[in-house]
Write a structure and sequence with these properties.
Porin
């Protein structure tokens, strides 16, 4: 039997179909102030995938976060069937809550076909098995945090994370703007490629814009900074499984104007580059400039 926390995420990304192109999704409170951006991203991709033929896989996604999502209210996803060609299909997805757009994205799909191949080499880092799992904070430390952060740091989520570089979110130091994180679901799921892509889209929002905070010695957990995703781009290159170890190689080339840019490459354990990401996010210091 699938672990409840994973089964809940599968259901969350599955959505309720209201009409041919209309879907409704619920939200899961994981300890963030508003709806977790990765949830909206994964649900929007899931909605788009349900309107194309099964043999066409998503290869790129470009999204904008327009408003903060309300965790207590459902989200409606309206899918526009923009184009169906011989090789490619395009879908535009609008997420609506309380009568307003909170998110929109365009997803492109392609049939499986052969072509040129090359890729960047996987970073030389310790294997996931050689690293400890991220552990929950001790109860005494958890009690010092606001309830939302207690849920973030104390709960057992559907993904297991293992950090290559040591970090302390509660007492951050100034670090280079790069990090490497292994992640996978804590249990196996069905073989559906569409489901695994939606799962990895969900997980791709973890730690991405946070990479841009590393050189500044500040953490989202200390309440001094307001972080919000502005946009998110994702490319799926090769077959992947969310329930097998994936290495997320992240870096942030710049931050300016209360915004930071972060990039990511996702590798399978055997070294295949399976996906790439990019995100710009708002990084606004509460109470003034740095």
């Amino acid at each position: 039997m699938t672990k409840p926390v994973v089964a809940e995420l599968v259901e969350l990304l599955g959505l309720e179909r209201l009409e041919d192109n209309l879907f409704r999704g619920q939200s899961r409170d994981i300890g963030t102030r508003y709806v977790f951006g990765g949830q909206v991203l994964g649900q929007a991709l899931s909605a788009a995938q349900q309107t194309v033929e099964e043999h066409r896989g998503a290869h790129s996604l470009h999204a904008y976060f327009l408003r903060a999502g309300d965790i207590a209210a459902p989200i409606v996803y309206n899918v526009e069937r923009t184009r169906d060609g011989r090789s490619f299909s395009t879908r535009r997805v609008i997420a609506i809550q309380h009568g307003e757009q909170i998110f929109n994205c365009t997803v492109s799909f392609q049939i499986d076909e052969p072509g040129f191949e090359h890729q960047t080499a996987m970073p030389q880092v310790p294997s996931a098995e050689a690293l400890p799992s991220r552990r929950a904070l001790p109860p005494a430390e958890l009690e010092k945090l606001p309830p939302k952060l207690q849920r973030w740091f104390g709960g057992a989520g559907p993904f297991e994370l293992r950090y290559v570089e040591p970090r302390d979110d509660l007492n951050p130091g100034r670090l280079p703007p790069r990090q490497h994180i292994w992640f996978r679901l804590v249990d196996r799921i069905a073989d559906s490629p569409a489901l695994h892509r939606a799962m990895v889209a969900y997980a791709s929002d973890f730690n991405l814009i946070g990479t841009a905070l590393l050189p500044h010695g500040i953490s989202f957990a200390d309440g001094k900074v307001h972080l919000a995703s502005l946009d998110h781009a994702m490319w799926f290159h090769r077959a992947l499984r969310a329930d097998e170890w994936l290495l997320y190689a992240l870096d942030s080339p710049t931050a300016q104007g209360a915004r930071g840019l972060a990039r990511g490459q996702i590798f399978s354990a055997d070294g295949r580059l399976v996906a790439s990401t990019a995100q710009e996010g708002m990084m606004r210091l509460n109470g003034g400039h740095p």
